[in-house]
Specification:
Elements (H helix, E strand, L loop, with lengths): L4 E7 L3 H17 L6 E4 L13 E6 L9 H9 L3 E6 L5 H4 L10 E2 L6 H12 L7 E5 L2 H17 L3 E3 L1 H4 L6 H10 L3 E6 L7 H12 L3 E6 L12 E5 L20 H36 L5 E2 L5 E4 L5 E6 L6 H12 L6 E8 L6 H10 L5 E5 L3 H4 L4
Parallel strand pairs: 1-2, 1-3, 3-4, 4-5, 6-7, 6-8, 8-9, 9-10, 13-14, 14-15
Antiparallel strand pairs: 11-12, 12-13
Helix pairs in contact: 1-4, 4-9
Length: 390
Amino acid sequence: MDYYYQLVTLGDVDELSENILDVLWRKIDELGIAKKNFKIINEISFASYVKNCPTYCLYFGSKTGNFQSIAATEKLIQTGSLILPIFFEENKFAIHIPKILEKYNGFLYNNANKIESIVALILEGWGLLRSSRKLFISYKRTESRSVAIQLYEEFEKNGFDVFLDTHSIKPGDIFQDELWHRMTDCDVIVVLNTPNFLNSFWCKEEIAEANGKLIGIVQLVWPNHKLENIAELCLPISLKDSDFVDKIYDDKNKSLFSDHQIDKIISNVESVRARNLVSRQNSIINELLNTAQSMGIHLTLQPERYLSQKLSGDQDRIYIPTVGIPQSFDCNRSEELINNIAKHKVANIYLVYDHIRIRDQWLKHLAWLNDYLKVQTRQIKDVQSWLTKN
């Protein structure tokens, strides 16, 4: 049986679904995965749905309550597929979405900036982007404290795990060690580039650290302030005074973004996050492939973005490039992924990661997990010592 990533579109499907697909295909192209590995299914073609392939369903609600595709939706519920109900007005979920989906967390689509977020959720649901959505806010307290707190709250509401120094480090913890540890595990950094941001030693250190770890940056450049070339993986957004409430942008205690600007920032962060995760994953993949070639070992990059090595006895060893800090959840999910792909007889599964700036206590925890879990973790820096032919 062929293994596909399935996207099912049900309900009141209109041009929004086409716009979502346009962005989705662009992201898939950036991932480097062939379109043939994906299958788009609607109510008419629903007979082609396969229950044991990774599936994500978009259910488009009806503003009039004229609900469609109920039988297909019920089948997806029974098979445990991921379903995202999409509604269109604040506090109208119960009106726009059928009762069979009342227990699902809906998504409010009220402007085009939300498409990036929908696509990110699809990719996460398929397992092509990690489901933990980690973000780091870098700012100068004396210039942008209120905006930093506002962004922290808005990103938290949109499903991000946000690091903000004043909110995210427990009392008694070693401040700088924990800050670097959390930055290692983040997907993207939002920089509030105020006039004196780069005059701060620690702000400059955070940018240098992001560059070294290939972490993407969204740079929010304050009005009347020059654009800084601070990182290779950087999306700059030049702000105007109209992007702020009451056009106040130079008061650390009052400056806040307008609602429209918040939506735009979140959309851009979603886009940079996806590209950054791919870039960091590619870095590990390329190092594995190059080292294997130098050792005379053949590795095959699979469409699901892991590498396989053929062993004796018709068995495979699996290497899964892992961005950020491996968790026990990643080990379990990786085992489930391989179990679902019948073409492999698996001898070993390795999660391969970059250890730099991960705290020693967590590295010891990962070593301890290796004694108990089928899926093992391996540091990319030691690749020559653990990559073997047999």
